[in-house]
Design the sequence.
């Protein structure tokens, strides 16, 4: 069974950093198209970042230069390093993955809440 | 990349059929024709219900169907049931690559 479990969320001050992790089971992150999608409180979904199986990375303009997506093949985990955090980054962050192609988000984790506030 | 446009809410009685529209542009839906739909119940993670505009994942009810015409995609739900009450989001693959979501539609079963 495919499962994604996020961790690392919490409260951080504006300008601070936080690292989210996503532990995968049922598939390997190295052969899966992986993404981060976020949802601000009471708002809709927003794509944040994408990691191709080949290693190429892509970011939404709103986080480019501040967030970094990566994977640890030995631990079968996906990570999102978030720096220079702003109040508008407050959201539930979902890890999502698809084994077949990169055009949609087939499997989702339960989400990790990140709150940026002083 | 601007968000796709969805109606804020749609409602229907049990057993009825409803349709949710999702309007994009020639830079996303009109060119790539790669629309996906997600169902989200309160406090839960989104769930994929339609991919590549018209395909249903294994295990998703055949009461859900997707279509597209030009820059607009649609999700139809037939035989509406109480469990269908949720938020629904469309999403399109677009250039760069990027993925753009709609603002979401709240479906209410009367």
Sequence:
């Amino acid at each position: 069974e495919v499962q994604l479990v996020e961790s690392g969320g919490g409260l951080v001050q504006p300008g601070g950093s936080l690292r989210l992790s996503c532990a995968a089971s049922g598939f390997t992150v190295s052969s899966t198209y992986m993404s981060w999608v976020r949802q601000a409180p009471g708002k809709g979904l927003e794509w944040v970042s994408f990691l191709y199986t080949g290693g190429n990375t892509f970011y939404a303009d709103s986080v480019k230069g501040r967030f970094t997506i990566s994977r640890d093949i030995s631990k079968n985990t996906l990570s999102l390093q978030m720096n220079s955090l702003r109040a508008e980054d407050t959201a539930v962050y979902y890890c999502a993955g698809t084994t077949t192609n990169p055009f949609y988000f087939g499997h989702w984790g339960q989400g990790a809440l990140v709150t940026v506030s002083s | 990349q601007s968000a796709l446009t969805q109606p804020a809410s749609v409602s229907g009685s049990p057993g009825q059929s409803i349709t949710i529209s999702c309007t994009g542009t020639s830079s996303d839906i009109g060119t790539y024709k790669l629309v996906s739909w997600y169902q989200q119940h309160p406090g839960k993670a989104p769930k994929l219900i339609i991919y590549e505009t018209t395909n249903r994942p294994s295990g998703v009810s055949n009461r859900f169907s997707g279509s597209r015409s030009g820059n607009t995609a649609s999700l139809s739900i037939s035989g509406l049931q109480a469990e269908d009450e949720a938020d629904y989001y469309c999403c399109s693959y677009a250039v760069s690559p990027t993925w753009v979501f709609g603002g979401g539609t709240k479906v209410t079963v009367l």
